[in-house]
User: Fold LacI family DNA-binding transcriptional regulator from Vallitalea maricola.
Amino acid sequence: MGKNNLTIKDIAKRTGFSVRTVSRVINNGQYVKEETRKIINDVIKETGFETNIYAKSLRKKTAKNIILVIEKQQDLYPGQWYSNMFQNIINQASAYEYNVFMFQFNMDDEEENKKNIHLLKSGFVDGAIILNIQKDDNKIRLFQELGIPYVTIGKNYNYPENPFVEIDNYKASYLVTEYLIRSGCKSILFFLGSNRYISNEERRGGFYTAVLDNKLQKQDFIIYEGIKSYKEAYTACNQIIEEGQLPDAIFVSGDEKAFGVLKSLNEKGISIPEDIQVVGFDNIPISEYTVPSLTTVEQNAKDISYKAIEILIGMINEEDNYNGETKIIFDPKIIYRHTTRKIEE
Assistant:
């Protein structure tokens, strides 16, 4: 491995010390024994490891740049909830006089990955907020190896020390499912996105736990996985109607996808919520103005972005001495509107 390809993680492996300790030495931080500092510096000198502009700018606080890391998608439009999140992150970062740049990462593309690493080593970036968290997430691994502070939107069980902010996805799904069951539903379809994402795994768990807790038959509560867009939700709902398999309710992981379900049902003259109930997820502003107005789970982009920036700036400014809370889980809230029926107490 050439010196230009070495990372902080490589130096940590060679010296036997942690990435955090190596980062402290590079940044001339405190709380490192002189013997340890000498060993690490000797290896850095021996390998020709680039103590790049990033390490210097982190110490001097001069870059003032944060990157917002998302996966590269085929669809150019990320969705309104993500758009709201991006804008709130920009607004909150500007209050700390930081700039925000959006990076689309494709960790399966080796050439693109090399360019990303070169840019991150250049000193352009002070920290990152990472979205689209997967079970085995290469994005997180990259930032850990480079020693760049980051916060993820959503937890990752493979990185228990990972700083994150999220809504309680498991509880949110559980509460929606239990509400629909209490309103009389004996069958529910759950339109869910890709099972690569941890948030979707947690929503799946909450859904099925609510079913089992209410002693209902699992076969009447079905998950349609891989529903990624308004169009796919619309098409899936049309197919269900044509097959005569209409359930008592459809729970949709994402408001914009729920709009596709509403369009399909309205076109077929199916009454909502009398014949079928529909619940979304996100509470994006336009969900209040659908016909009927959409019952949904509030996932407050402003609160999530505020805490993510607060944690990240603290980590950048205080480095390893940051002792603020780094794991934030917001309690979910159902916004009841007109696509669900009221429960008679």
User: Anything to note?
Assistant: The two ends are 68 Å apart (CA to CA).
